[in-house]
Task: structure prediction
Amino acid sequence: MDMKSKFSEKVKHLEASAIREMFKLMIRPEIISFAGGSPASELFPKDELAEIAKDILQNNSGVALQYGVTEGYAPLAEWVEKRLDKAGIVHDTDSIIIVSGGQQGIDLAAKSLLNAGDGVVCEEPSFIGGLNSFRSYNAEIYGVPMEDDGIDTDALEKTLKAHPNIKVLYTIATFQNPTGITMSLEKRKRVLELAEKYDFIIFEDNPYGELRFAGEDIPTIKSLDTYNRVVYFGSFSKILAPGLRLGFSCADKYLTDRMVVCKQVQDVHTSLLPQMLAYEFVTRYSIDEHILKLRKVYGSRCRLMIDCMEKYFPKCITHTNPQGGLFLFCAMPDGYDTKIIMQKAVEQNVAFVPGATTMIDISKTYSTFRMNYSASNEEKIETGIKRLGKVLYDTVGE
Amino acid sequence: MDMKSKFSEKVKHLEASAIREMFKLMIRPEIISFAGGSPASELFPKDELAEIAKDILQNNSGVALQYGVTEGYAPLAEWVEKRLDKAGIVHDTDSIIIVSGGQQGIDLAAKSLLNAGDGVVCEEPSFIGGLNSFRSYNAEIYGVPMEDDGIDTDALEKTLKAHPNIKVLYTIATFQNPTGITMSLEKRKRVLELAEKYDFIIFEDNPYGELRFAGEDIPTIKSLDTYNRVVYFGSFSKILAPGLRLGFSCADKYLTDRMVVCKQVQDVHTSLLPQMLAYEFVTRYSIDEHILKLRKVYGSRCRLMIDCMEKYFPKCITHTNPQGGLFLFCAMPDGYDTKIIMQKAVEQNVAFVPGATTMIDISKTYSTFRMNYSASNEEKIETGIKRLGKVLYDTVGE
Result:
């Protein structure tokens, strides 16, 4: 039998994440890759986690290896709740669940809320993992351009007027993926007002928020929400380790209840050993000190990358100036196709993410690209940017 | 805003797994619970896993803690493929993925194949986690009664004739949950012929297959499949540890490709440390020796439970005679409601799973119940069955 004839409508046209597919090609050790979204491996607290893991498995294996509850390992969920509460994120009507990476939180909320044909409006460019989840429930995706201080809220309102089917706004308001841009306080308030006026729900995806290395903190949209309209997603991937697959959601308790039922059918519960590792780490050590270390390293890598770009890139190539997170976003003059330039770059053993993979219509041509600075050390950043500079000069001329 | 007004059609009416909800109430230490589906905690190879975990995190943290590929940790996937290949399960056109528990395999295949209104036919009683996944994609569920040698294939054919929308048969052919019944070879062949005749796909969920403690092995349906109609799901939950959340699927490569895209949006990839733990365990130790130990213990617990039932239960109560797995299934005379009896049992500090939670229409009254023998030691089995016997005698009389 031809299985292809049986595919459901929702998944037939889904494309595998181009970033993750590229990821597989980039294992060639001579490639300097600015394409991933990986935190710095050398900063993982591996010795601490090794001791903790041994301790948990020897002394608490009945919990670590046995079935657990879908909502998550209670001590970790309580720790997350306290931490979010301090930041004003948890409201009286909210509940927390521990999920298998922030991505799962988005997917559970999407499944709980989206019918086929419902609209999701997002920043454009945006994070393809979020968009693909919405697509997998047959939602319609609408993009709104980014400005230096976040989503263009006037364009957003126009889109909302034009598409009354919009049920969800997906935003990475802080150190956005892929642009590194942070939404201003003013725009956060405006977005909330629009949510109330046009009756939609805001998915605030905040995996990078703790990684600020410049400027002043801005309150999360969730902490400003007095309408019960924000579903908040956080992650241990960037502050501890992505391989653990640990994240959390904070949302209205009735919605959380639906998300829990969906999580039961997805994976019953998040693997317990990673949950216990994270809990013991934050209990025995200071996660804030660890985060400070990450901020320092990522800040210096970001500044170095920008310095190198200004030295080695053609002058016509612009870049964003992130105050945190893992990414900056570059633009060539209009008309260039960074998918083609990417291939030339890989030939020169350097890689980035072409802008197309961050856009809603990936078949079009875009002259933008995303650069990750967290995963490469100083030497690699300098060498890689030099290599990429050459490829860009070859393309745009002097 | 009232979030409830925004729920998607597919999740609005989903009920949380009654078993998992009960699970939460049964943490009272004085309760002897035969209700779970847990393997024996005391048989987890905790010291071995503790050493391995420490070793992995100290010496291979760059892999264990960093992002990985969606298909799974390659050495583990290759090991699974070899093991399944030996059992004739892998066909040339198949691919393997490592999933976050067998449940995720079912859910990914369901999402990849089921449109709203598609039919899924299942054994009745069956495993509610599977059925809830199908429901969460708005599929219609049809039940077919069980006989001593598996699903009633004549009734199955009648159901197939009556419901041409049926796209999937969901079966736990070996040591079924909840009955412990194993489908005969003859019926396995018949089911395959029906699949070809009525053009449906078979989901063969096989988490218990390796836990045979009596009788002779019967080939999996997947190994008999010459039509490319079987999607196979396996699990490390019952042979290693469920808290790790590790399973695998073996299916047509095109379907697997769709499942991988769906897994990307669900959790990006399965947590790496559990995958590496499992791989290192099966490499450094003999999983077959470990499984032999489990079989021996579960076989003796099953026999003890049956002996105790024959001693302490009213004669009118029947039970299945499983040759493996974790469960046996009991029936009271018609007319009794085991949901009510369950409450009385819990008052007497003993628990089981009422039959209703294993049926498609959980609102009806059923006189059946599921008993787990793997998670309780000899003393608890004897004491618990004695307690339950009293409750049953109080209900049905002498």
User: Anything to note?
Assistant: Chain B has two domains: 3-45+288-396, 46-284. The longest strand of chain B covers residues 140-147. The mean pLDDT of chain B is 95. The CA atoms of residues 244 and 274 of chain B lie 6 Å apart.
